[in-house]
Amino acid sequence: MLGFLVLCAAAFSVTTAAVDTFEACERRGLELVSIYSQTEENAIELALGNNTNGIGHGFWTAGSSLGSAFAWFTTGSALSYKNFPPGQPDNPNTEKCVELFRLANGTWRWNNYVCNAELPYICQTKPNCCYFN
Predict the structure, then answer these.
(1) What is the largest CA-CA distance in the chain?
(2) Is 112 inside any structural domain?
(3) Across 110-124, average pLDDT
(4) What is the mean pLDDT of the chain?
(5) DSSP string for 73-90
(6) What is the CATH number of the domain that holds 41?
(7) Cis amide bond preceding 92, omega within 30
(8) Is residue 1 part of a domain?
(9) 66 falls in which pLDDT band (50, 70, 90)?
(10) Would you put residue 87 in left (φ > 0), alpha (ψ -120 to 50) or beta?
């Protein structure tokens, strides 16, 4: 079987709280990004290139905690693929949203963070990916 991953994503440098990113993407006919595989994350990281907005605190994704577990709130799917560094996620009572951020060494990782923090965000086309035979 030959498969192709089709992922169209756009990063927006306008900062907003995580709760407002869903509507911001919807206004553009898009949805907040959900990352289901290393391949998808690599495509997003390649598109972001050397973007320095992600250093320190990065870009909102559709990841959020539902109780004690994280899921993609756009689909309700559990995070089957994760890229949290050691020690993350932490602070489960206050940090319930997931950002994609860039370390100083250029590596991208995930972090749970307070949802009312204003960060840039990444939207993607709907559905999040397509495979063709």
Answers:
(1) 44
(2) yes
(3) 95
(4) 85
(5) TTTTEE-SS--PPTT-S-
(6) 3.10.100.10
(7) no
(8) no
(9) confident
(10) left
Question: Which letter does DSSP use for residue 54 in this model?
Answer: G
55 against 60, higher pLDDT: 60
Range of the domain at 119: 9-124
Residue 48, pLDDT > 50, answer yes
And the tokens for 23?
Answer: 């509507």
57 CB burial (10 A radius; 0-12, 13-18, 19+): middle
pLDDT of residue 38: 95
Residue 132 lies in a domain: no
Alpha helices in 27-119 (DSSP H): 38-48
Cα angle 15-18-19, degrees, rounded to a multiple of 5: 120
pLDDT at 132 over 50: no
Q: Which long-range contacts (CB under 8 A, 24 or more apart) does 70-73 make?
A: 70/98, 70/112, 72/34, 73/22, 73/32
In a domain, 16, yes or no: yes
What is the amino acid identity at position 35?
Answer: I
Nearest of 117, 118, 131, 106 to residue 40 by alpha carbon: 131
